[in-house]
Amino acid sequence: MHINNKTPVVVVTGFLGSGKTTLIKSLSERNDLERTALIVNEFGDVSIDHHLLKSAPEQVALIGGGCVCCQVREDLVQSFRNLLNESEASNSQINRVVIETSGLADPAPIVFTLLRDSVLQHHFFVERIVVTVDAFNGLHTIKTQQESLKQLAIADTVVLTKVDLVGPFQLETLEKSIEQLAPDAKIVRSSFGATSMRELIEEENALRFDKKKYDNLTLSSEHISKTRAVSVLFNEPINWSNFGVWMSMLLHAHGQDVLRIKGIINVGTAGPVSLNGVQHIIYPPQHLKEWPDTNRESRMTLIVRELDTASILKSLNVFSRYFGATPVLSSRE
Ligand SMILES: Nc1nc2c(ncn2[C@@H]2O[C@H](COP(=O)(O)OP(=O)(O)OP(=O)(O)O)[C@@H](O)[C@H]2O)c(=O)[nH]1
């Protein structure tokens, strides 16, 4: 709902692989994102999430590489200004903006950006900060990942995702921890994004964006050290079984240091295989019926911590003759 003619902005954040894209996709499929602009930001050179969001909302803006929270805040400002210009030019009002942050984002600076930018503050307000927490990995993530704590610290709504994977005891234990870390937040349980925008934004006491809540937050641009995104491309189709063997070996040896694996892999069939792994768990790969675009390269992003990029490249090169394709690798901290 617009307030004082300002457009609401919902920030969807949450640790790597906690289910942000799945949630947004599900909202989109139930037509909860009509006339909604989506801004997607990913940590990694190869953006994949927007390809997986097939039934796209009104408009999708992509902010490539890095986190919305630090390096590219100007890009965020620019994306919002573009939205304003486009909606003015077409004389059509946007209902809402949804920002999907990278899994390593500290959402506080996003809020500051909207509050302080001389133009944006007159046109947008932060309606809700929605934080996804993976019910399966959540307890471990909260204990070990500083970014996760920063996200929970300013949550208005916490969506416990993947509740289908855990029992009631694990769920209740996690909820108790979250209640301590985010005492004001509404907690919503969901599997595969099953919820509604109404449930996410509605609060019993009509909780509105409270500027004071954010005043004590610092504009930190630090991520936990030594996190890097490694992007791998293959120009030729890959032998899927052998690639699976390489992946298993990587996770067996370095599972603790691999935070996220995401990719679209050309296995020589009509559509690609969508690859999705969170920490040491690889989800069942999905064989897509068709490619999301004209690019037929295999694209994979690994987000790793304390793991030497050179050793990943070395092992990929050793395996390349079994893959039937040569890897091209780039890495960014
Ligand atoms: N079983 C189960 N799997 C889920 C659920 N939600 C998401 N997943 C799976 O978890 C994996 C990661 O989900 P995403 O939605 O891509 O997570 P994300 O937070 O957008 O990931 P990043 O953008 O990398 O941070 C995918 O394989 C999803 O299919 C759920 O409720 N239950």
TrEMBL record:
Keywords: Chaperone, Hydrolase, Nucleotide-binding. It comes from the Bacteria. This is GTP-binding protein. PANTHER family: COBW DOMAIN-CONTAINING PROTEIN (PTHR13748:SF62), COBW-RELATED (PTHR13748). The keyword Chaperone applies. It catalyses: GTP + H2O = GDP + phosphate + H(+). Residues 227-320 form the CobW C-terminal domain. Coiled coil: none annotated. Belongs to the SIMIBI class G3E GTPase family. ZNG1 subfamily.
